[in-house]
Each structure stands twice: as C-alpha cells, then as structure tokens.
Amino acid sequence: MKRNLYLSAVTLCTLCLLFPASRAQQDTPTPSSTPAKSPAKSTPESRGHAKKLYEVDCAMCHNSNGDGKTDLAKDMQLTLRDWSDPKSLANKTDGDLFDVIRAGKDKMPPEVEGRAKNDEVWGLVLYIRSLAKTQTDVTAK
To answer: Is the pTM of this model over 0.90?
Structure first.
C-alpha cells in the first residue's frame, strides 16, 4: 500500500515536471486588474482630501505644484516628471499611476493600504492629473 502511494506521488510529480501548465497560459502576460481609468468620482471633498494626502506624502519630493523640483529630490539625485506639464503624463493611464503610487518605484516608497485606501489613491491620481490642468488654465489667461 505504501509503495503504491509512493509510486503515485512520484508519477504525479514527474508528470507535473514534464507537462507544466499549457504554453498559452505561460506565454500570455497576466493582465493588470487595475482599471485604466480612475473609478473615483471627483467631488469637492475628495479633491480636498487628495490635496491633503498629496501635501503630506508626495509634495516633499514632487513639489506642491507637481514640477518635481525640490531640494529633497535634488539631494537624492532624482529626476522626476514635471506633472505641471500636461505632456508629462499623456502616455500614462490612470491605472499606471495608481500602480506606481500603490507599489512605489525606485526610491519612491509605496502608498501602502494602511496609509491610504484604494479610493484615496484614485483621488491622488485625479489630483496629480489636475496639477497640469491648473497650470494650463493659468498660462492660458
């Protein structure tokens, strides 16, 4: 009996090694579960909350106007995107921004779940996008 169980286990392991999951599953990248467009609704309250969160967690490196020109960024030898320029985020989806904020990137720490809920991070995405619109509105006048 023990020998039959042993042989069955060895056979199963061998089959798993010889015939892994289908090639189609292995070669197909896993799609991100993050939506491309922010599901957050922009309200005066959510914008105010996002601005406060940005000022506490982001502005020290990215600057309050989003241009990325701060003493801390310079001291850390960081070259940050100028979010006050509409072109700087033109090729990034809201989902891309969400993922970078949530997971962090390079020297940027992640905005972990304990510090901000998903709807707050989506609010940050909308706030960051608004930095360029604000600059555009000011220069258009």
So the answer is: no
Number of C-beta neighbours around residue 74 at 10 A: 12
Residue type, 129: R
Name the residue among 58, 73, 60 with its Cα closest to residue 125: 58
What domains does the chain contain, in order, with CATH numbers? 30-140 (1.10.760.10)
Widest CA span in the chain: 86
Q: Residue 12 contacts by C-beta under 8 Å, 6 or more apart in sequence?
A: none
List C-alpha distances in Å: 13 to 7, 10, 20.
10, 5, 10
C-alpha–C-alpha distance, residues 53 and 57, integer Å: 6
Per-residue model confidence as pLDDT tens digits over 106-134: 999 999 888 899 999 999 999 999 998 76
Amino acid in position 6: Y
Residues 12 and 94: their CA atoms lie apart, in Å, by 44
Token pair 């309250």: residue = 45
Crossing angle between the packed helical segments 44-57 and 118-140, to the nearest 10 degrees: 90
